[in-house]
Input
Amino acid sequence: PGEDELFDTVRGLSFLKPFTDDEVHEFVDAGEWLRFRLGQEIVAEDDERESLFLMLSGRACSSRGGAGLDESDEGESFGEISYITGEAQVYAVNATKPSMVLRIDEPVVDWASFTCQLKLHKQLQRVLAERLSVMSRRVTEAR
Output
């Protein structure tokens, strides 16, 4: 796909709503567009790559040790912990539908303007806080 098609796809993602068009172009320029078949592994558990992923289309399921953890739909992100900490991926991610993702491997300081960096950090904090809240409720309900 061309850069215009990728921009149009990425621009519509809920994760990127707070970003300006110029900032969305920064994501497009930094990322790699990847396609995955149903059941194909997107990220291996303990993968050393420090990547951030944005779901452009499809759906994926994350798991740890074979236990399902969460699902990612269009417009959502995954890989945030590894991207922020520089540590290996915490969980595996497999496509549960044919999917397209934007993978960003470079550290944010290498590709994003200062305001884009601030917005990205805020989005990542929001996503991680929401996931922590969901997991906390699950643990409490399981007792």
